[in-house]
Amino acid sequence: MALLRRPSINSSVRLDPNMNRYTEEIVEAFQSIQDDICGQLELFDGKGIFKEDLWERREGGGGRTRILSDGNVIEKGGVNFSAVHGPISAQLANALKVDPGHFFASGVSIVLHPCNPHVPIIHMNIRYFETSSPDSSKDPVWWFGGGIDLTPHYIVEEDSRYFHRQLKTICDRHHHSFYNEFKLWADDYFYIKHREETRGIGGIFFDKLDHKRELNKDQLFDFVCDVGRGFAPIYKEIAGRHKHKSFTDQEKQWQLLRRGRYVEFNLVYDRGTKFGLETGGRIESILMSLPEYARWTYDFKPEENSREAQTLDLLKKGIDWHH
Amino acid sequence: MALLRRPSINSSVRLDPNMNRYTEEIVEAFQSIQDDICGQLELFDGKGIFKEDLWERREGGGGRTRILSDGNVIEKGGVNFSAVHGPISAQLANALKVDPGHFFASGVSIVLHPCNPHVPIIHMNIRYFETSSPDSSKDPVWWFGGGIDLTPHYIVEEDSRYFHRQLKTICDRHHHSFYNEFKLWADDYFYIKHREETRGIGGIFFDKLDHKRELNKDQLFDFVCDVGRGFAPIYKEIAGRHKHKSFTDQEKQWQLLRRGRYVEFNLVYDRGTKFGLETGGRIESILMSLPEYARWTYDFKPEENSREAQTLDLLKKGIDWHH
User: Fold this and answer.
1) A44, A100, A148, B119: which has the fewest Cβ within 10 Å?
2) How far apart are CA B30 and CA B248, in angstroms?
3) Side-chain half-sphere of B96: how many Cα atoms within 13 Å?
């Protein structure tokens, strides 16, 4: 994979003529969301600047990986855009349960690891996938997916309520059942099975939103863009509440342990990560989600009734956060 | 899973009457290897003492997890023994390609993460597995597996030669083709595919050694015990060469980055870890292999011709180390 430094990736996304008119619009919208988020985060951080790596995929397409390191608020964060296409490999066909042919996939993926343990880790992703089959009698296959979830090192109920209410507001603008459905989906997805712990306080997760939904393609596209645009204001509000708080070394160590769990989730369960590793994606872009530093202490148990223990008690499915 | 503190696990390994006479012998030999290694490592470290957790598995058997933290040489190390048995679940049958019935499995697993970046990480495992089928007309299924591999943060050719020669000497005592075969197997197994890097300088790896081998069961049992007993002297020799060396902060940071790779291997590829996580093993015993601290820096590249770059150049398959 060649790394290029250029102002924009547009020219490298050689659109497949078999693809429908959406691909170009999606690529533009997703890039503009990436630009907007990077701008807002740089202003908010006040020190960190995104470093951009443009890359190309040999089989088609490429991406813009943007990493902010050693900021005032963000210790390590990635805001990545990619748009890739090409023949569907046997592995891809099997993983995604699609027929042979060509595929196009584009998305924006974000993970931010803060310096301060009182500021939560946040993740956001929006993505689009479509295939074109040589058999023109078949219906075109396409879908949208995505989600936002929050991983506080210390759970603060007011933040959790705020976070879920904002997500509900975004969802409600598009479909009355989205929040409830996608909140449940996030509880199930962002779950570290071997620890019997959720990754954090959840959020929303959705996948394979397609023509079988009540909304049409334009409306689903609007929804995922709305999720993407909702991300920065929500993060800035919550991070802004805590970024100036002082913290002890013990709190910093707890943050490192919780980051260890984040690593476990991403390497063992996260579908995007596994998919990327298995299909030869750009490793440094995929693994930007891992924190700068993490820790594993054998059989660590926080003191009873400590804030650490209270946080652990809340790492479970089915909590109704938005009331 | 209940944690018990007792001098020995023997009484909790309720042997299945269907098992053959080997199980008891193996349990005793493996426990004695664990005892011997822990004793040697404590003496060698001079500060760290193993903390023991005895645990029981609800469906049958249990283990002795022993962890040494914050030693003079060893920052975090685990020397674990387990002996578990019970009905073969559908998942187990599928993963191991065995028929329904009962299984018995026992092993010793070791990972040592040193304080000093000039001392390598080392791993050793020996294991035995057998099944008994309700259908007495079927041949009994049993096998031995195991291996030792070394992960230097800085590769030293003399150490690598010493390490591989020692392994070859052990192998040669049992079968003239073992070293060549198991060295190749280790190159393939201890490989971080998404990084296109071996985990370290390899070693030996072997699995499913059974009646189809030229050696009989007694002889294979002797071989794995010899591997187990070979571990401590080899580690003490290599660690002893470097444990007093001074190191810079830059070298310490490089160690943290290499540990990040170790985490990637163990969570993404290691069969024992995956198997343990999927089948509800004792998590803290399985994940003792993860280092106390690890690091991921986006797209880190060592300076050309630095010792770090030289080490990266040697992280590949097919190097003939023992000459």
Assistant:
1) A100
2) 39
3) 29
- The runs of H, that is alpha helices, within A190-246 are 217-242
Under 8 Å between Cβ of B186 and B147: yes
Tell whether B96 lies on the interface with A, counting CB pairs under 8 A.
Answer: no
Which of B283, B288, B298 lies closest to A194 in CB terms?
B283
Amino acid B288: pLDDT: 97
**Residues B152/B198, Cβ–Cβ less than 8 Å:** no
Q: Are B315 and B200 in contact (CB under 8 A)?
A: yes
Give the integer Cα–Cα distance in Å for B184 and B319.
10
pLDDT at B181: 98
Between CA A254 and CA A22 the distance in angstroms is 45
pLDDT for the residue numbered A60: 87
Contact between A292 and B294 using a beta-carbon 8 Å cutoff:
no
Give the one of B53, B290, B296 whose C-beta lies nearest to A296's C-beta. Answer: B290
Contact B231, B148 (CB under 8 A): yes
Chain B, nearest residue to A282 by Cα: B194
Per residue in A122-156, pLDDT (tens digit) is: 999 999 999 887 777 777 799 999 999 999 999 99
Strand order in the sheet with A61-69: A3-4, A51-56, A61-69, A74-87, A102-114, A121-132, A141-151, A203-209
Per-residue pLDDT reduced to its tens digit, B133-187: 777 777 779 999 999 999 999 999 999 999 999 999 999 999 999 999 999 999 9
Low-confidence ranges of chain B (pLDDT < 50): 1-15
Size (chain B), residues: 323
Q: With beta carbons less than 8 A apart as the criterion, state whether B47 and B23 touch.
A: no
Secondary structure class of B88 (helix, strand, coil): coil
B292: helix, strand or coil:
coil
Q: Residue B194: its chain A contacts at CB < 8 A?
A: 277, 280, 283
Q: Contact at 8 Å (CB) between A48 and A70?
A: yes
Q: SS3 helix, strand, coil % of chain B, rounded to 5?
A: 40, 25, 35
Asked if the C-beta of B298 comes within 8 angstroms of chain A's C-beta atoms, the answer is yes
Q: Using one digit for the tens of pLDDT, what is the confidence trace for A204-257?
A: 999 999 998 999 999 999 999 999 999 999 999 999 999 999 999 999 999 999
Q: Is B244 a catalytic residue?
A: no
H or E element that contains A188: helix A178-189
Residue B135: predicted pLDDT:
74
Chain B residue numbers with beta carbons less than 8 Å from the beta carbon of A195 are 283
Domains in chain B, start-ordered, CATH in brackets?
9-313 (3.40.1500.10)
Tell me how far apart the alpha carbons of residues A23 and A312 are, in angstroms, rounded to a whole number.
Answer: 42
A158 reaches B (C-beta below 8 A): no
* Torsion from C-alpha of B206, B207, B212, B213, nearest 10 degrees: 20
The secondary structure of residue B47, as a DSSP letter, is S
Amino acid at residue number A139? D
